[in-house]
Amino acid sequence: MTRTPFIPPRVVVTTAWKVHRAIARRGPGRGLWHPGERNTWGALVLTTTGRRSGERRPAIVGYLEDGDRLHTLAMNGWGEGHPAWWRNLLADPRATVTLPDGSVEDVIAHRADGDEHARLWAEWLRIEPGSAALAARRTTPTDVVVLERTPS
Q1: Range of the domain at 54
Q2: Contact in structure between 13 and 79 (CB atoms under 8 Å)
Q3: Degrees to nearest 5, angle at CA 137 with 141 and 7
Q4: Is residue 71 part of a domain?
Q5: Is the full-model pTM beyond 0.90?
């Protein structure tokens, strides 16, 4: 019998996001890590442009590498709806990422479809096998977002 994965109460999730953002604001790369460092995915700061405000909006997201590209899951802490950063990228796919070493790179985002989606989703399931059960609890699709590095 497969156990249902645990999702903490929403207040715990949002508080964790606030604390993590505060740590990351202390300096480039603070509180971030590379994939595999903690036997899991990595963490980076993805900065998008607000679709309504036009202001820069940072979000800390988990990521994996795919050659010279990065990819993440457009999930809202496993809650319903798409995260604001993904809605911002749908309006303007240009963004920056701050990596764990403190470097900042320009990226262009797109949704993985077809075979690309299947291959990248399988990589997330290899790292986090419970992701399929968590995604199945949501009515919102969990898009895989590819971040292509662009020349500065």
Answers
A1: 10-149
A2: yes
A3: 115
A4: yes
A5: no
The tens-digit pLDDT sequence of the chain (152 residues) is 455 566 667 676 666 666 666 666 666 666 787 888 877 889 999 999 999 999 999 999 999 999 999 999 998 877 788 999 999 999 999 999 999 999 999 999 999 999 999 999 999 999 888 888 888 888 999 999 999 999 86
104 vs 73: CA distance, rounded Å? 20
Q: Has residue 4 been placed in a domain?
A: no
DSSP 15-61: HHHHHHHHHHTTSTTTT-B-TTTTSS-EEEEEEEE-TTT--EEEEEE
Count CB-CB contacts under 10 A for residue 121: 19
